[in-house]
Amino acid sequence: MYLRNAWYVAEISNDVGAKPVPVQMLGEPIVLFRKPDGAVAALEDACPHRKLPLSMGRIKGDRIECGYHGLTFDATGACTRVPGSERIPHAARVRAYPAVERYGFVWLWMGDPKLADPARISRIDHWGEPGWAANSPDSMMFECNYLYITDNLLDPSHVAWVHASSFGGSGTGTEDTPVETTVTDEHVIAWRWMMNTVPAPFYAPLLKFKGNCDRKQHYEMRFPSHMLARALFTPAGTGGEGKPLHPDVFFMDSYNFLTPVDAKRTRYFWIQMRNVRAGDVELSRQMNLAIRKVFEEDLRVLNAVQIGMDNKITPNIDLKIDNAPLRFRRKLAQMIEAERAPSPMAAE
């Protein structure tokens, strides 16, 4: 089940051009195409005649033509041409999805179009601010349910084992520093401070200071499935809740946008913001490559988790470290159930 009245990332903006782009989201086939005015249109990827994917057709100006019999549809989903027919059948239309481009991504609203408010798109802090840089957006396909990824992203301790040579390091194991959990109507946050520790290998070359650090892991999973993973490093003795930021503080905000494809596949999109060497293009390139390798470590583990859970012969268990993931799952399930329930007015 999915929360449908929400914005999800459909594609990276630069990957939508003059040709139809097929995507699948929440079990629904969708075609994206860019109109002459530059705006992106999103339609159900199935001609109503014989259900050939419209993505197998052609773009004709601000419309898309089916590659089977030439039925043509505008960006609202209305059929505007049926070759050889004197009239257009009333049922000759496809669903249109509200589409917005922001932060280098194409976002689609998957629920009631009347509720599609762009202000509800998950925000990226410091976007476009001086002194901050964004890496290039990227994505990969995970062969697992999206909730296994939200479990992973709300578990700061997994870096000690899955990412030992990159995001991990001293103090990241659960026996070293416990994880706190904060729950609101908008998100679940798993967070902790690790004091006077050696900087993790990935981050050490990026820091402005030498020696040990105080490190904060802030993993904020926003409903329905968008994560802000904030890494904060500050000189040892200067960190902690409520303290003013040290001039040499380092931030890397990793925004991870999970789009369920179906019950066992998830498109994982991401982009990172950093507050150091904002104009360093080569650093951004190197970080793009390094971060992709880190996420490939998650992919290897979580794809295997899906297989293991599908084929388990004994029940799985939950641990103390699963507090934040389980609370996120419960809250999301409640939101999905509330969305599916009939409104009081509809029952009258």
Can you give a write-up of this model?
This protein has about 350 residues and is α+β, with helices and mostly antiparallel strands. The protein has helices at about 145-155, 160, 280-310, 325-340, 345; strands at about 5-10, 20-25, 30-35, 40-45, 60, 65, 70-75, 80, 100, 105-110, 135, 140, 180-185, 185-195, 215-220, 225-235, 250-260, 265-275. The longest helix is centred in the last third of the chain and has 30 residues, at about 280-310.
Structure summarized in a few sentences:
With 348 residues, this protein is of the alpha+beta class.
- H/E series: EEEEEEEEEEEEHHEEEEEEHHH
Chain-averaged pLDDT: 94
Q: Unreliable segments (pLDDT under 50, ≥5 consecutive)? A: none
Number of helices: 5
| Estimated helix fraction | 10-25%
Could you say which structural class the secondary elements and strand pairing correspond to? alpha+beta
CA radius of gyration is: 23 Å
Number of separate domains: 2
Got a strand count?
A: 18
Strand content: 25-35%
Identify the CATH homologous superfamily of the largest domain. Naphthalene 1,2-dioxygenase Alpha Subunit, Chain A, domain 1
Task: Tell me the major beta sheet.
Answer: 8 strands, antiparallel
User: In CATH, what is the class of the largest domain?
Assistant: Alpha Beta
Q: Briefly note the CATH topology name of the largest domain.
A: Naphthalene 1,2-dioxygenase Alpha Subunit, Chain A, domain 1
Assign an overall shape: globular
Distance between the termini: 27 Å
* CATH architecture descriptor name of the largest domain: Alpha-Beta Complex
